Amino acid sequence: xxxxxxxxxxxxxxxxxxxxxxxxxxxxxxxxxxxxxxxxxxxxxxxxxxxxxxxxxxxxxxxxxxxxxxxxxxxxxxxxxxxxxxxxxxxxxxxxxxxxxxxxxxxxxxxxxxxxxxxxxxxxxxxxxxxxxxxxxxxxxxxxxxxxxxxxxxxxxxxxxxxxxxxxxxxxxxxxxxxxxxxxxxxxxxxxxxxxxxxxxxxxxxxxxxxxxxxxxxxxxxxxxxxxxxxxxxxxxxxxxxxxxxxxxxxxxxxxxxxxxxxxxxxxxxxxxxxxxxxxxxxxxxxxxxxxxxxxxxxxxxxxxxxxxxxxxxxxxxxxxxxxxxxxxxxxxxxxxxxxxxxxxxxxxxxxxxxxxxxxxxxxxx
Length: 366
Prior knowledge:
It is a single chain. By secondary structure, this protein is α+β, with helices and mostly antiparallel strands. It has three domains: about 1-115, DNA Polymerase III, subunit A, domain 2 (DNA Polymerase III, Chain A, domain 2), CATH 3.10.150; about 125-245, DNA Polymerase III, Chain A, domain 2; about 245-360, DNA Polymerase III, Chain A, domain 2 (Roll). Helices cover about 15% and strands about 45% of the residues. The chain has helices at about 5-20, 70-80, 130-140, 195-205, 260-270, 320-325; strands at about 1-5, 30-40, 40-45, 50-60, 60-65, 65-70, 85-90, 95-100, 105-110, 125-130, 155-160, 165-170, 175-180, 190-195, 210-215, 220-225, 230-235, 250-255, 275-280, 290-295, 300-310, 315-320, 335-340, 345-350, 355-360. The strands form three sheets. The chain has a twelve-stranded antiparallel sheet with strand order 14-11-12-13-25-24-23-18-21-20-19-22. It has an eight-stranded antiparallel sheet with strand order 6-2-3-4-17-16-15-10. A hairpin with a 3-residue loop joins β3 and β4. The chain is elongated and about 80 Å long. It starts with a strand and ends in a 6-residue tail after the last strand. The model has no long low-confidence stretch (mean pLDDT about 95).
């Protein structure tokens, strides 16, 4: 194996693959990235047995071959090279030799025979979607995913087709987020992407352009942009039937400026108690929303925010984190709060925004 590649491409590929490589003392080979020189480029492959990432970058190939190099160490070394210059890489006696204009470095490597084979999926469904839309869907609902792995079906994002739209949904039992993006496919499908894989998909594809070809079987998903191919296991389970908990009748509606709400909430939460509780109050015939917080050790805070409000008196308590997390997913400058009564969920969206909503269960009023 012998090839020449720029630092830029080596660094981009190694940084992405390093995060996928496992940290498994019983299987040291999972700490490696498999570098293959073939055709007109270098291919970087890393896996932790649950996910795998295959990246191709342009390079001048002088001799084809493969080598399994320690992923984190290789990434750190390439990043430490001060200038964006051509680097020659060569395999000699299972060592990787890296040569620049002024340096020669030898990195001891693993046996390529120990590197695991990736599963071959029996493709059942496939569809194409823009990278931007798929990332937007995941990013919009990711905040609502359960962080506990005790229930894998909610420690994941549910993606399914509905009337030529792709629907993304997530819940942790205390809140629910749903996002629609146009897809145009007539295929009928639904699958659960585990939270860990969602984090990696966002990291890998967030700044890429173009389209994704998505291929599915019963157990795996492949996201292929051409130069980047990400594989993940899917969660085996059923996502909750959340449609039945979406309220259809509301006692109070409030339209409020997103920036005003966000800025005032940031100040108010400085006085939250140990349970992160924030009290929201509305009053009949008053055009404002009141936010109250109280901490026995620090003091208390109250603020009124101008709003267009309809409905009677209402006092309801929420975990402030749930009121903060959804804000980046709203594109509108105005928020629409729809309250379904004390002890019942709050539904939030952007004003006149139909592609996203966020549902929050209240806390008990203390």
